[in-house]
Design brief:
With 272 residues, the protein is mainly alpha-helical. The protein is built from eleven helices and two strands.
């Protein structure tokens, strides 16, 4: 069976849910522990000064460890990062133009602070978004929201996260239907003008609202009361506590220590 590009995007969205149903040491960890560990990881990464590059590199150990232990495909995570990367590029795009003061000297070439901060933004983006993607793929959005609910996060905020994720599938499904209909009714370059795009965007909005109302009525008919059902009870184990303590300790060493400098010093040996 041949899929259109829009259909492939829709199927890849559901791939994250399929990965969350796997069984591995990471999948079996308590959802609250994984959420707290990822949160501490993100706080440590974004707390560095704007011109930081080298000290960010040791933090790649955590997402790579989770991906390998949970058997998550690196290609899928990489594609998700590429899809979201324009946001990070847009944030730091003007840094090289606004900050032209030389900061690094590589041979005869000088690198301005704007380029250094731009690369630092990209590194932070890969680390933080990559950790969230691995968290979602190894835990599942329902378990994440249930863990937040158990940690006394406001219920309205948790429901907004869950619905935003779930209604993304509704929006993508309607967009796939519109693109499929357009491709069947057009030939060559016909049907690719701005007027067609404007009409499709309006139709997508209306059809998404109709589907959302139908889903909302179906949820109320099934006695949904604004609470996320928990499939299995949360219970901390020794492995959960050990995982959290070990990784938070390493994050603290990476953030407030200097592992790169210590490693370079060990390689170079004592100076006379």
């Amino acid at each position: 069976m041949v899929f259109l590009p829009s259909q492939e995007i829709l199927l890849n969205l559901g791939r994250m849910d399929d990965l969350a149903r796997q069984d591995s040491p990471i999948h079996r960890l308590d959802g609250r522990i994984k959420v707290l560990t990822a949160l501490f990881f993100i706080v440590c990464v974004i707390s560095f000064p704007p011109y930081t590059l080298g000290p960010l590199l040791p933090f790649f150990v955590y997402p790579l460890f989770v991906m390998s232990t949970a058997r998550l495909p690196a290609g899928l995570i990489g594609k998700r990062l590429l899809v979201l990367s324009p946001l990070a590029i847009l944030v730091g795009l003007f840094n090289p133009l606004l900050d032209r003061q030389p900061l690094l000297q590589v041979g005869t070439a000088s690198i301005s602070g704007g380029w250094v901060s731009f690369v630092s933004i990209l590194l932070r983006f890969v680390l933080t978004v990559g950790s969230l993607l691995t968290l979602t793929a190894s835990t599942g959005i329902e378990t994440i929201c249930a863990a937040l609910q158990k940690m006394k996060v406001p219920r309205l905020f948790v429901l907004q996260i869950l619905f935003l994720y779930r209604y993304l599938f509704v929006l993508t499904e309607e967009a796939a239907r519109l693109l499929r209909a357009r491709s069947l009714r057009s030939f060559g370059r016909q049907g690719n003008g701005f007027a067609i795009f404007r009409s499709m965007a309006g139709s997508l909005l209306l059809r998404s609202l109709q589907r959302a109302e139908a889903i909302s009525r179906a949820m109320y008919c099934r006695a949904f009361e604004g609470r996320i059902p928990i499939e299995r009870p949360f219970q901390l184990t020794r492995q959960d506590i050990l995982f959290f303590c070990c990784w938070t300790f390493l994050f603290g060493v990476f953030r407030w220590g200097n592992p790169i400098g210590i490693l370079v010093g060990l390689i170079q040996g004592p100076t006379r």
